[in-house]
Amino acid sequence: MKRRSDLSQPRRRRRLDVSYDADAFGRFSESIAMLLGTARYLVWQTIVIIVWLIFNILPPANWQFDPWGRGLVLLTLVLSLQASYAAPLILLAQNRQERRDRAATELDRQVAERTQADTEFLAREIAGVRLALADVVTGEELRAQLEVLTDAIARLEARLPAADETLQSN
């Protein structure tokens, strides 16, 4: 065992550190998932499998690269390998989409809260304006008051000559 001069830090095990860009890998997995999830891909895969089967059933045994008699081991291996990589890539793409959906839902919730707060504020402001307008004199009320004042002035003018005569006689 090798002695170390610095004993204040625990030993670090040497390990192979694999680093990668998670976002780039995520975009790659989404592109694979988008490809595997199309009808075009399924049609092409079906055509390849049919061609594979034709080339391994119809020609003579020495031309077959994956003979039927062995149970199409190579085709099984290829399809198993495809499935073993496709499933985790599709799950990774789904997880990324779920995170994006969660972020969008949170943003929608925040926008809805702000909208509700703004709506409540505007409702209070409109109620305040209505209360303020309730105290304002309307044109009809002003006309009615002006008529009352006009009638009062007319009565005062009618009494004025009689008051002048009373003052002159005194």
What does this protein structure show overall?
With 170 residues, this protein is an all-alpha fold. The protein has a domain at 22-123. The protein is 75% helix and 0% strand. It contains four helices and no strands. It has helices spanning 22-36, 39-57, 73-134, 139-169. Helix 1 crosses helix 3 (73-134).
Strand element count: 0
Radius of gyration: 46 Å
Task: State the shape.
Answer: elongated
What is the average per-residue confidence, as pLDDT, rounded to a whole number? 87
Number of helices: 4
Structural class: mainly alpha
Percentage of residues in strands: under 5%
- Which blocks of ≥5 consecutive residues have pLDDT under 50? none
The proportion of residues forming helix, as a percent range, comes to: over 70%
Major β-sheet, in short? none
Distance between the termini: 138 Å
* SSE arrangement, N to C: HHHH
Summary tags:
single chain; 170 residues; mainly alpha; 4 helices; 75% helix
Brief rundown of the structure:
By secondary structure, the chain is mostly helical. The protein has helices at 22-36, 39-57, 73-134, 139-169.
